[in-house]
TrEMBL record, chain A:
Pathways per UniProt: Amino-sugar metabolism; N-acetylneuraminate degradation
Named cofactor requirement(s): a divalent metal cation
Record protein name field: N-acetylglucosamine-6-phosphate deacetylase
GO biological process: N-acetylglucosamine catabolic process; N-acetylneuraminate catabolic process; negative regulation of UDP-N-acetylglucosamine biosynthetic process
GO terms of molecular function: metal ion binding; N-acetylglucosamine-6-phosphate deacetylase activity
Source organism: Lamprotornis superbus
Family to which this protein belongs: Belongs to the metallo-dependent hydrolases superfamily. NagA family.
Automatic annotation (TrEMBL), chain B:
EC class name: hydrolase
Subunit text: Homohexamer.
Gene source species: Lamprotornis superbus
Upper classification of the organism: Eukaryota, Metazoa, Chordata, Craniata, Vertebrata
Protein name as it appears in the record: Glucosamine-6-phosphate isomerase
Keyword Coiled coil included in the entry's annotation: yes
A Pfam family recorded for this sequence: Glucosamine_iso
Keywords, alphabetical: Carbohydrate metabolism, Coiled coil, Cytoplasm, Hydrolase
Length: 471, 308
């Protein structure tokens, strides 16, 4: 078939036989189609099995008509029709995914405008196709700690970026915890590809946080911006060009000015490691804060007379048209599944899955470094060495998605969106990442029904595939 | 089977005695079965034609439930659309091409997306062309260049119109711009959230004359027996026989089309009921359901059912 490429000569790839997550819905699964087919076949048998009456009429609902089917059979027919109608009601029919030049292509436009067709067709064997995961809080992994001052920073970040492809992460925000000033401003934004997941910008968690809720952050590095507000912040971080998110404690004096300044520069402000009450948190949101760093952890617990930062999930003082997002580490350890469910039910559209993974992720149990401290890994648990204070997690993003789906019983679509669409909306990039809409970046994953990643694609190119032998 | 065979032979010879062209009334059980019948017919016609490089089968077509069946045959490997050209018979004017109710969207979502047709062979009038008459003339030319239409399939409106040839259209008309009749606008309102102001008032349509040119015009009357499941129809064995030389197929289902069917079959050729023009066409099949025959004489229905 001729491919008329009036817009571009680049090859067009058509991914067939897949179930795409689009418009918050997954398309019809093959099993369901089989059931529908079985229903119609059964109906056909029932109809043809009836023997004709003298006048050639068949009347399933009239038991008096000679030669009609029995009442039971007639009722079965009605039930089958109902099943069939239910089966076809909500699930949208299958579509294929079309990709050209690293973007999702609109095949209808291709057909009518360019009279074009696909150059390559790939059979996805009934996999789920979802947008690539976006991790907005990841401190390191595979022995690499982003907050550790080192000459070899670039290769460390490249290593992590490459390894997390197998977890389904196609874009991430390397997170720097409270550290001496020298550690900051080493991260640069870059697109993803075969070399690794794309870097959207740094997430600077601290040092402008509360002493009481420092968690695993070293106390001697904590700072305030009482004196010079935004100038203090700038002095600490240096350049803010490649910064995407800043976590700070809103109860600190002059935080409103800082939040306003950061928001003006397009940087997402997150509340965390704080002892703020609900009013302070709401005020911060009114000045521009839009995120909560790992909800429930490193903040005051929910209290029915002062819900604290947790109260933002259902606050009525959020400015119109704005949404507050909140990160959740759904590894089953940082948050009890019941608490996860409460948060999800209270504000499902704001939930952003994060790993908060640290250097130990992907490594064997034992001692490792996080920022300026030493931690111990024991299975999925990590503590500051010698204490019981949790410090980061070693769960991978796909594990978090699966655990989230199991714990809340939510739909597959919701679980996948919490790791892709919501982080994209948080960072204001949903026009190009986090969805499979036409003209957005072709960063996507192929998953099986149990939400295990089978293949990862960035800009339409396959960058990772599950080993058939089983990794 | 034999009876039906005889009927068709009778029907064939009868066609030269009566003014009406051969009008096989195919009575089927329900809309789904009718769609399947129509789809099997199209499928067989295409296969029998043996289209290949340089020898294209041309289909003039409008929205039908049989698309699903055709797609099924394609997916089973029984039918390929590689050498099939399609010409849609109409399109709204002024509606954006990607509007969900435009015929471009309709054809893409329900048909083209699922089959292997060459985009260059799928022709739909462009309702947003700067010069609409030139667009219509170009369309006529494309049909001519394709060698005319091998099989035309369509439905009718409650006012008996074929395509958008509203009552009062010339029976020798060609592809042109038409203002839609109130009946049509009302019928279409349900696709535009019931808001009459959103329904397009003009459309480009092939003319009656254009369709009468079709080498094979099959008027496809699909009789659907809604309440009682009666299967008095042609079962699948028939389609493969070479009796089908009809080239226009028109689907007429539902009681609201009954009067139009009556006008089409039992009254004369009349430009107020444009589908009646097909009485003059040598080969026509109407496929309809029980409800659509409600306005016909019992005698006519019995005749076509073979129950004398």
């Amino acid at each position: 078939m001729p491919s008329n490429k009036s817009v571009s000569d680049a090859p067009i790839v058509q991914f067939t036989n897949c179930r795409i997550l689009r418009d918050h819905q997954l398309q019809r699964a093959r099993a369901r189609q089989r059931r529908l087919l079985a229903v119609s076949q059964l109906e056909e048998q029932l109809y043809s099995g009836r023997h004709r009456s003298a006048r050639g009429r068949r009347c399933p609902w009239d038991p008096l008509c000679p030669g009609s089917m029995s009442l039971g059979q007639g009722r079965l027919l009605l039930v089958l029709q109902m099943i069939r109608e239910l089966g076809v009601c909500n699930c949208p029919p299958r579509e294929d995914l079309w990709v050209r030049e690293g973007k999702i292509l609109n095949p209808e436009k291709l057909f009518f405008d360019e009279k074009g067709s696909a150059d390559v067709q790939l059979d996805c064997k009934d996999s789920i196709i979802a947008p690539g995961f976006i991790d907005v809080q990841i401190n390191g992994g595979f022995g690499v700690d982003f907050s550790l001052a080192t000459d070899d920073f670039k290769s460390g970040i490249d290593l992590v970026g490459q390894k997390i492809l197998s977890h389904g992460v196609t874009s991430f925000c390397p997170t720097l915890v409270t550290s001496p000033s020298s550690v900051y401003h080493q991260i640069s934004v870059r697109n993803g590809g075969a070399h690794g997941a794309g870097i959207l910008g740094a997430h600077l968690e601290g040092p402008f946080i509360s002493k009481e809720k420092k968690g695993a952050h070293p106390e001697h590095c904590l700072r305030t911006f009482e004196a010079g507000a935004f100038q203090d912040l700038l002095a600490t971080y240096g350049c803010l060009d490649c910064v995407q998110i800043v976590t700070l404690a809103p109860e600190m004096r002059r935080s409103s000015e800082v939040i306003r300044e950061l928001t003006k520069r397009g940087i997402c402000v997150s509340l965390g490691h704080s002892v703020a009450n609900l009013s302070q948190a709401e005020e911060a949101v009114q000045h521009g804060a839009t995120f909560i760093t790992h909800l429930f952890n490193a903040m005051l617990p929910f209290h029915h007379r002062d819900p604290g930062i947790v109260g933002l999930l259902t606050s009525d003082r959020i400015p119109a048209g704005r949404r507050v997002f909140y990160g959740m580490i759904s590894d089953g350890i940082h948050t009890n599944p019941a608490a996860l469910r409460i948060a999800h039910r209270a504000h499902p559209k704001g939930l952003v899955l994060v790993t908060d993974a640290m250097a130990g992720m992907g490594l064997a149990p034992g001692r490792h470094t996080l920022g300026q401290q030493v931690v111990e890994i024991d299975g999925l648990n990590t503590y500051i060495a010698g204490t019981k204070t949790l410090s980061g997690s070693v769960a991978t993003m796909d594990t978090c998605v699966r655990h989230f789906q199991e714990a809340t019983g939510c739909s597959v679509e919701t679980a996948l969106e919490a790791a892709s669409l919501h982080p994209a909306q948080l960072l204001g990039i949903e026009h190009k990442k986090g969805t499979l809409n036409y003209d957005s970046d072709a960063d996507f994953l192929m998953l099986n029904d149990s939400l295990y990643v089978q293949a990862t694609y960035i800009a339409g190119e396959e960058v990772w595939r599950q080993d058939v032998s089983g990794m | 089977m034999l009876l039906e065979l005889a009927l068709q032979t009778c029907g064939l010879s009868l066609s030269y005695k009566f003014l009406t062209a051969i009008m096989r009334l195919v009575i089927l059980e329900d809309y789904d079965q009718a769609s399947e019948w129509a789809a099997k017919y199209i499928c067989n016609r295409i296969i029998q034609f043996k289209p290949s490089q340089g020898r294209y089968f041309t289909l003039g077509s409008t929205p039908l439930g049989c698309y699903k069946k055709l797609i099924e045959y394609h997916k089973n490997g029984d039918l390929s659309f590689k050498y099939v050209k399609t010409f849609n018979m109409d399109e709204y004017v002024g509606l954006p091409r990607n509007h969900p109710e435009s015929y471009h969207s309709y054809m893409w979502n329900n048909f083209f997306k699922h089959i292997d047709i060459d985009p260059n062979n799928a022709h739909i009038l462009d309702g947003n062309a700067p010069d609409l008459q030139a667009e219509c003339d170009a369309f006529e030319k494309k049909i001519e260049e394709a060698g005319g239409i091998d099989l035309f399939v369509g439905g009718i409106g409650p006012d008996g119109h074929i395509a958008f040839n509203e009552p009062g259209s010339s029976l020798s008309s060609r592809t042109r711009l038409k203002t839609l009749a109130m009946d049509t606008i009302l019928a279409n309102a349900k696709y535009f959230d019931g808001d009459l102001s959103k329904v397009p008032t003009m459309a480009l349509t092939v003319g009656v004359g254009t369709v009468m040119d079709a080498r094979e015009v099959r008027t496809h009357l699909v009789l659907v027996a809604c309440v009682f499941s009666r299967l008095v129809g042609i079962d699948t064995g028939i389609e493969s026989k070479e009796i089908f030389v009809l080239q226009v197929m028109i689907l007429i289902t539902g009681a609201h089309k009954a009067f139009a069917l009556y006008k089409a079959i039992e009254e004369g050729v009349n430009h107020m009921w444009t589908v009646s023009a097909f009485q003059q066409h040598p080969r026509t099949i109407f496929v309809c359901d029980e409800d659509a025959t409600l306005e016909l004489r019992v005698k006519t229905v019995k005749y076509f059912k073979g129950e004398h």
